[in-house]
Amino acid sequence: MSSAPLLEVDSLRVEFKTDAGTVRAVDGVSLSLAPGERVAVVGESGSGKTVTALAVMGLLEPPGNITGGDVRLDGRSLPPLPDNEYRRIRGRDIAMVFQDPMSALNPAIRVGAQVAEAITVHDPSVSRAAARRRAVELLERVGIAAAAQRVRDYPHQLSGGMRQRVLLAMALANSPRVLIADEPTTALDVTTQAQILELLDSSRADLGLSVLLVTHDLGVVAGHADRVVVMYAGRIVEEGGVQQVFASPRHPYTRGLLASVPTANGRGSLTPIPGAPPDLSQVLVGCPFHPRCAFAEAQCLDAVPPLVELADGHCAACVRAREI
Amino acid sequence: MTPILAVDGLVKHFRAEGKGVVHAVDGVSFAVDAGETLAIVGESGSGKSTVARLVLGLLSPTSGTIRFTGRRVQMVFQDPYASLDPRMTASAIVAEPLVIAKRRSHVKTRVPELFGMVGLGTEHMARFPHELSGGQRQRVGIARALALEPDLVVLDEPVSALDVSIQAQILNLLAELQSRLALSYLFIAHDLAVVRHIAHRVAVMHLGRIVESADTAELFAAPAHPYTQALLSAAPVPDPEVEKARRRIVLRGEMPRADDPPSGCRFRTRCWRAQDRCAGDEPALVDPGAVGHPVACFFPEVPSPA
Questions:
Q1: pTM (two decimals)
Q2: Which of A36, A246, B77, B303 is the most exposed place for a label (fewest CB within 10 A)?
Q3: Domain count within chain B
Q4: What mean pLDDT do residues B183-197 have?
């Protein structure tokens, strides 16, 4: 993408101070999102993908703390902003949908009122009646049938898919430019997942949104992103166009992930990645992936390999990236 | 071959307070042969986990029969953290079935052997569940299930809580144990890619009924029931070329409620092939001839002759 980035994460570091030591959850992550672009951040549990998203939203809770780097929207640095200013940006410029729609909604408030609140909180001049009307429109747009009746429902009266639609309606209420979707379909059944992903794609096209999609599911990445960023142990290990990365993965971890997914070939042995991810409260020596890596050699212990560009926009953080 | 497990006309209704009767399982028949893996796949509310519980005797059926001709059936659960006692060491957890079965004298030799079988070193024996990774915990769960040498293991979503790189380790382990110990598996899952990898045969459940069953390769190559087609087409494939080229069937509307299922075929309200007959009659799970495997649909997709 040639246009100037809308959202930039620059050398971001996030630490959690716990009794067991300091966990370096995000350790120097840089990524950018151009207008209208869909970037997927993919990784397994503990890779730092969700913490990165929360840091962008200014939603990190203690003991989580940004200890370095920057997050910029239109070139403006967000982390130094006081709470009330961040709150104005959150929802209006950058909106977020979460994995579990049930816990993201207030169980004691009717869904219509929750969508209306998302509107009035950013524009108190909107009357209650106007906000309610707009809530119905938004719910219709996200595909809720009989929205005028459904606004009176409580979250528990809706299915998981409908709840996720309500969250998306709230996220779109103020026409944000960036939507961060954190595992938006992980809690849903596969046919419902297809509905929600289709809705995300059509909303993005209609509204010109940029989408940062956080997911563990490589299948979702393949179908719903332009670029992909692969995270491991708090770092980016590979990034590039979705076609590039899936067709010729250059980091052993990305290769391992793709080889672990059961696919069309059916029965036969999978090639898992041996071992488990490292404990991020320990000091890691060298490449964080080397203990599990089939390509590791002595130099992998020397230093953390930097993210190096191998081809147009395709980068990998591996000293042997060009040979594998 | 006589099946090790034969389930016939299984029905389980739950009486929900103020909500009438939930038809969780409504006339399900299947058989598992010795040494084979039958996967039951379905979405939330399909009744697949209720079938697992009925087979294990954790629930009693409203009607129907379950005939088990093997020696012993055991279970592996979805969430290894919730199914292991946090105050017991891994070795005590694996030894517990032996203790309960009054084979305490076997513990000393059998427990280390079980740890070896599931790929855990003896250094893990003294650890507590919170000191193990998710994959290691599931290995402990599998070792416990194997302690009393079952010949049928019911696995309820055994890898869905695990990361993909760990999931592959556990799937390989399950396949290896099956061939080494001649185990039969009843594998309950929602993930079609996993099912395709591990199962010999697949039964697809929808709202308490089996709508289609076939050998795995055949089901994936030529799904005949519209619901199976929708399910396969909705599952994302980790290949951008495939994703770009595919024509996805996105179902409209919501899954009907199990306490108020539609008349006739329970899929008809979301089915693009539905006709008047589907509302009146209930399609039986039979092979309509041209399909080659049982499918409960009046208008199944018939494979075109190659």
A1: 0.91
A2: B303
A3: 1
A4: 93
